[in-house]
UniProtKB/TrEMBL annotation:
Organism placement in taxonomy: Eukaryota, Metazoa, Ecdysozoa, Arthropoda, Hexapoda
Gene Ontology biological process: chromosome segregation; microtubule depolymerization; microtubule-based movement
Biased composition (Low complexity): 21-30
Similarity comment: Belongs to the TRAFAC class myosin-kinesin ATPase superfamily. Kinesin family. KIN-13 subfamily.
Region Disordered, residue ranges: 1-50
Protein's UniProt name: Kinesin-like protein
Compositionally biased intervals (Basic and acidic residues): 31-49
Residues represented out of the complete protein: 124 to 549 of 549
UniProt entry keywords in alphabetical sequence: ATP-binding, Chromosome partition, Coiled coil, Cytoplasm, Cytoskeleton, Microtubule, Motor protein, Nucleotide-binding
């Protein structure tokens, strides 16, 4: 470096000026080195401090590595002013915050949301020499919501843009996908205040609010559109009416391959409040009772269907389906000694795989649509056909180290649903 710095002097011949430049440069270099050394000393001290603070935590090394990674990165989270993009298929990811229990256990948070569409999983690994290291796995989606995002913000970029689809005579569908406990019901049904759920703050209710707003808007007021809602559960390939005490319903297919759920309750709703009552009633039915089917709502798909009709024609004007999917960890539940659980797991697996293929087919117009692959996709067939179908999938992940493997599975699934600008590793 010194030689390089001296070069201009021998070439330029501006004797004393050149040598004073060299002196300045050397001084600057010395200063830089001192600063660097100082910083390294501080970092070592910081690391030592961190070690002492967390040495009772078996994961303190991973914690330190994740912290170091974060310190070296610039974060540019989604801003409310960021534009809402128009896609036929939107796939995004939402990271929930660590909960109290995880914080108390000192669980490392292994997820970093770097920007409005870029997420990194810091996967803890052990080398063959038993040294710990992180494998940082990167994923790109349409949006990435970090732990500070509210349901309102998530709604703005996911389901809200699809309300327009319903009024243009189309079918809109919104899925919540992820592991049990990752925040699907929180996002769709509304956030929890202790044990009670605030239904007003969920995507179900927010969609309802916008639907009623559209109905009375100058553009659509004259059409006298009416709104109604159904709420049902698909469990083990069978349909149960959540608005009729979980009555089991039959599914029939007519000659046009249209699937009918026989006797499904369809409640007329005239206001957001009335819709909220339907949501509340259905949700309570889903999580109450002691039959095998609702012992755990994580093993069923819940479907809220909001239908908009014009009085002059019997046909549906538009439809919005909102689906709180079964926990994806239950899909591979083959280790269970319980035969019933294994069958349920196989059925869930089948439906989630069929769902992935159907959304992919929607993305490639004219592709074979394998909707017969499961009851879920069979019933939602409308969502995957037609020029007017729009879908969004919100993929939820838990940030804890314990959930890392599940989170990676979830993100890989989502990456297949819509091929984004590929996963890359660093
Ligand atoms: P799932 O339906 O996927 O099983 P839940 O929606 O029931 O998960 O969420 C599990 C717990 O985590 C709930 O207590 C919920 O309040 C909490 N939770 C989920 N997502 C968030 C979030 N984004 N912010 C705060 N708490 C959340
Ligand atoms: Mg749930």
């Amino acid at each position: 470096q010194k030689q390089q710095a001296a070069k201009p002097e021998s070439q330029g011949g501006a004797g004393w000026q050149g040598s004073s430049n060299v002196v300045k440069q050397v001084q600057q270099q010395n200063k830089n080195r001192e600063q660097r050394q100082q910083r390294q000393k501080e970092l070592r001290k910081d690391k030592e401090l961190h070690k002492r603070m967390h040495q009772n935590n078996p994961n303190w090394e991973f914690l330190a590595m994740i912290r170091e990674y974060r310190d070296s990165m610039e974060f540019h989270p989604l801003q409310e002013s960021d534009p809402v993009e128009d896609h036929a298929i939107t796939v995004c990811v939402r990271k929930r915050p660590l909960n109290m229990k995880e914080v108390d256990r000192n669980e490392p948070d292994v997820i970093s949301v770097l920007s409005k569409n870029h997420i990194v999983v810091h996967e803890p690994k052990l080398s063959v020499y038993l040294t710990k290291f992180l494998e940082n796995q990167h994923f790109i989606f349409d949006y990435a919501f970090d732990e500070s995002c509210s349901n309102d913000l998530v709604y703005k970029y996911t389901a809200k843009p699809l309300v327009q689809t319903v009024f243009k005579g189309g079918v809109a569908t919104c899925f919540a996908y992820g592991q049990t406990g990752s925040g699907k019901t929180h996002t769709m049904g509304g956030n929890f205040l202790g044990k009670t759920q605030n239904f007003q703050k969920g995507i179900y209710a927010m969609v309802g609010e916008d639907i009623f707003r559209y109905c009375t808007s100058p553009e659509y007021n004259a059409l006298n559109l009416t709104v109604s809602a159904s709420f049902y559960e698909i469990y083990n390939g069978e349909v149960f009416d959540l608005l009729a005490k979980r009555t089991k319903l039959r599914i029939l297919e007519d000659d046009k391959q249209q699937v009918q759920i026989m006797g499904l309750t369809e409640r007329a709703v005239n206001s957001v409040d009335e819709l909220l009552q339907v949501i509340q009633h259905g949700t309570r039915t889903r999580t109450s009772g002691k039959t095998a089917a609702n012992a755990s709502s994580s093993r069923s798909h819940a479907v809220l269907q909001i239908v908009v009709r014009a009085p002059s024609i019997k046909n549906i004007h538009g439809k919005f389906s909102l689906i709180d999917l079964a926990g994806n960890e239950t899909a591979g539940d083959m280790s269970s000694a319980n035969r019933q659980r294994r069958l349920e797991g196989a059925e869930i697996n089948k439906s989630l795989l069929a769902l992935k293929e159907c959304i992919r087919a929607l993305g490639r117009k004219g592709a074979h649509l394998p909707f017969r692959g499961s009851k879920l996709t069979h019933i939602l067939r409308d969502s995957f056909i037609g020029v007017n179908s729009k879908t969004c999938m919100i993929v939820m992940i838990s940030p804890s180290m314990k959930s890392c493997e599940y989170s990676l599975n979830t993100l890989r699934y989502a990456d297949h649903v819509k091929e984004h600008r590929s996963i890359y590793k660093q």
